[in-house]
Amino acid sequence: MIEFLSTSLLWWHWIVLGIFLLTMEIFTGTFMLLGLGISAIIVGVVDIIYPLSTEMEVIVWMLLSLLSIAIWFKYMKDTRVETSGQSNYSLETLGIVEKTIAINGRGRVRFDTPILGNSTWQATSKEHLETGSRVKIVAVKGQLIEVASI
Questions:
Q1: 117 SS3 class
Q2: Tell me, what's the pLDDT at 131?
Q3: Looking at residues 128-141, what average pLDDT do you find?
Q4: Spatial contact of 37 and 21, defined as CB atoms under 8 Å apart
Q5: Long-range contacts for 139-145 (Cβ within 8 Å, ≥24 apart)?
């Protein structure tokens, strides 16, 4: 089987595979196939310039694919979402003050989207916030959410 692939697998097969993977990416929307497709195209171009054995082509493709996946997970992370404990809220979630919050005091805020399954939360703030003020989450401290004006 390896002998057959070594004699029949050409540089343009890699480019066609890369274009196929890039086309499949359009339908999945995960961006994972994007790195695999670009890696296959790079292997095809390298094979044109510097002919490689089939084993080396596959190894280079796997290494480039792993590198693209590592880069994807490192740099494409949504930093607005906090994932500590069971929480999965966005720090930029907006809400309206229902009960006035004095400086470093407590009040009540109703958020536009539920936070951990509840729309209304006890909140604190480092500034005075009147009823009806628009606020966003700054931090979650146990059962208390710290908010700030927009």
A1: coil
A2: 93
A3: 90
A4: yes
A5: 139/91, 140/82, 140/87, 140/89, 144/106, 145/109, 145/115, 145/121
CATH number of 81-149: 2.40.50.140
Alpha-carbon distance 147 to 94, whole Å?
A: 9
- Asked if residue 144 lies in contact with residue 106, where contact means CB atoms within 8 angstroms, the answer is yes
CA distances from 140 to 15, 79, 89, 129 (A): 49, 15, 9, 18
How far from 73 is each of 34, 77, 121, CA to CA, in Å?
13, 6, 33
C-beta of residue 91 within 8 angstroms of C-beta of residue 138: yes
Phi, psi dihedral angles at 147 (to 5 degrees): -125, 165
Check pLDDT > 70 for residue 45. yes
Write the DSSP symbol of residue 84. S
pTM: 0.53
The pairing of beta strand 144-149 with beta strand 106-115: unpaired
- Domain edges within the chain: 2-75, 81-149
Can you tell me whether residue 120 is helix, strand or coil? Answer: strand
Structure tokens at 130: 């009147």
Tokens of 55: 């084993």
Quote the CA–CA distance of 11 and 43 in Å, as a whole number. Answer: 8
Query: Which candidate, 75, 72, 12, places its Cα nearest to that of 45?
Result: 12
